[in-house]
Amino acid sequence: METIELTAEKRTGRGRQARALRAGGKVPAVVYGRGVKSESLEVGSRELEKVYAKAGGNKIVALKIGGGRARNVLIYDVQHGALRGELTHADFYVVRMDEELKAEVPLHYVGESTAVYQDEGTLVKNFEAVEVECLPGDLPESIEVDIAVLDDFEKTITLGDLQLPAGVKLVSEDLGGLVAKVEPPRSDEEMAGLEEAVDEEAELPEDVKEEEPVVVSEDSGGREDRGGRDNK
């Protein structure tokens, strides 16, 4: 397994000083965990971007603070800038390799559904990620969902159908939760009904009258004419 490393420094400035930190190519961060004293950090923005692209929120990162020894952490949470989408803050959660943890793992949909490409159905995905519990070393990068089993409109994939790696279990107790299915195409009658519903919504209620356009002409001396009538 590839070791993903990240270096950080302790941070003393807070509040408004965070702006100056970001302007200098640094990102404010915090590290914490069970039985671990919370510390404010600063991390190089480019280095953090690269590490987050590799690790996401479910790969162990060896975080080295100053000259101390590396700690195994997860990038537990990040914040992004509203305009450019750059990372503006990060939370690192210290994990113990001998203790189970809970984390969200993305679902990776693979394969092809004949109900989609032959029968013109629409694939409906209800989950993009699921919460699992396992030892940090067993945490999967993603969980594959093979939609090839959806070969008709009656088939479904539930949480209980997910193929989990050894040592990994779902946190959810609702194993019947729907993960994916294929909806059949709408019939001509259904499409006609939708068009009628849209037309009805577009009509004004009986007690509401549509205002006539206001026309201001030079001949009226700047007076407003409604519907072409001279309002004298």
Could you explain how this protein is built, in words?
- The protein is an alpha+beta fold and 232 residues long.
- The chain folds into three domains: 4-95, Ribosomal Protein L25, Chain P (Beta Barrel), CATH 2.40.240; 102-183, Ribosomal protein L25, C-terminal domain (RNA Polymerase Alpha Subunit, Chain A, domain 2); 188-226, no CATH class.
- It is 16% helix and 38% strand.
- The protein is built from four helices and 15 strands.
- The protein has helices spanning 17-23, 45-55, 114-117, 188-202, and strands at residues 4-10, 26-33, 36-44, 61-65, 71-80, 87-94, 101-110, 122-125, 129-134, 143-146, 156-158, 169-170, 178-183, 214-216, 224-226.
- A six-stranded mixed barrel has the order 1-3-2-6-5-4.
- A hairpin with a 2-residue loop joins strand 2 and strand 3.
- The radius of gyration is 29 Å and the shape is extended.
- The N and C termini lie far apart (86 Å).
- Mean pLDDT is 85; it is low at 227-232.
Keywords for this entry:
4 helices, disordered C terminus, 3 domains, alpha+beta, RNA Polymerase Alpha Subunit, Chain A, domain 2, 232 residues, Ribosomal Protein L25, Chain P, 6-stranded mixed β-barrel, 4-stranded mixed β-sheet, extended, 15 strands
Beta content comes to: 35-45%
Strand order of the largest sheet: 1-3-2-6-5-4
The CATH class of the largest domain, by name, is Mainly Beta
Low-confidence stretches: 227-232
Helix content: 10-25%
Give me the count of strands: 15
How many helical elements?
A: 4
Count up the domains.
3
**CA gyration radius, whole angstroms:** 29 Å
Query: How would a textbook summarize the main sheet?
Result: 6 strands, mixed, barrel
Q: H/E element string?
A: EHEEHEEEEHEEEEEEHEE
